[in-house]
Specification:
Layout (H helix, E strand, L loop, with lengths): L2 H22 L9 H16 L11 H20 L4 H32 L2 H12 L9 H6 L4 H10 L6 H12 L8 H16 L13 H26 L1
Helix pairs in contact: 1-2, 3-4, 3-10, 4-7, 4-9, 4-10, 5-8
């Protein structure tokens, strides 16, 4: 983990400790007590939603791409390894599902990083979210948790978006850059559908058909996802140039 990431985690840990001490009314607290564990859990649950997004301002697309490719290479290693026949079925299911997870993670971090440091993109999303059919409203307490920052509210909404759906990818890109993505999602949609079957029905569709991938199809899946990420990066860079 890089030094910036470590610093970010150290700051978060100190913030958690300060909050717990405040709740317990003392700086002398037992970090192994049940009360400490309960408050630490409450803090973590809050932070999952009320997150500090300042870390993402230091991220670049090139770094995100490096992390994405590193994870993809590990999946290629698994696929190309000698897997016992009786384990191929479950292995390829897991590889397929995780490949989509890596894709989602890249997109989430990319959108948050881009919007966090570009007011033009932030304002595009503010307009889009404000003009949607059922705009989200926030209580004063929720706003306080986000330090009163509209930016953090917007970034929080991005972080909750699930990107294993081409329509969500297209909508988020359109709302961010105020232009259409223009990408053929036919093959990627098939990958998303199989991922859904794997996660919810162990690889079978609603008709009972087994869509579990084999070695050849999983290699095609990985190549399709890599191709999309490359195209996505190219389109983003063209919007920023």
């Amino acid at each position: 983990m890089g030094s910036m990431s470590e610093l970010h985690l150290d700051i978060q840990e100190q913030q958690m400790r300060d909050w717990i001490c405040e709740q317990m009314g003392s700086d002398e607290v037992d970090e192994f007590s049940d009360e400490w564990n309960a408050l630490a859990t409450e803090w973590c649950n809050q932070q999952e939603y009320y997150q500090d997004y300042s870390y993402y301002e230091s991220l670049e697309l090139s770094e995100l791409n490096h992390n994405f490719m590193f994870e993809m290479e590990k999946l290629y290693e698994i696929v190309n390894a000698k897997i016992p026949c009786h384990l191929e079925n479950v292995t390829f299911k897991m590889v397929h599902a995780y490949a989509v997870t890596i894709l989602e993670s890249f997109l989430t971090h990319a959108f948050i990083s881009l919007v966090s440091k570009d007011d033009r993109l932030l304002n595009n999303l503010i307009r889009a979210y404000s003009n949607c059919k059922d705009p989200k409203t926030y209580t004063l307490q929720e706003i306080a948790h986000f330090d009163g920052s509209v930016k953090n509210l917007v970034l929080g909404k991005i972080s909750q978006t699930l990107f294993h759906d081409s329509k969500r990818i297209e909508c988020t890109y359109r709302d961010t850059f105020n232009t259409a993505l223009k990408y053929d999602f036919k093959e990627l949609n098939k990958i998303f559908t199989i991922r859904h079957d794997i996660v919810h029905r162990s690889g079978r569709d609603k008709s009972g058909f087994d869509s579990t991938p084999n070695r050849e199809s999983i290699e095609k899946t990985l190549a399709t996802i890599k191709r999309f990420i490359t195209a996505f990066e190219d389109k983003v860079r063209s919007q920023l140039s």
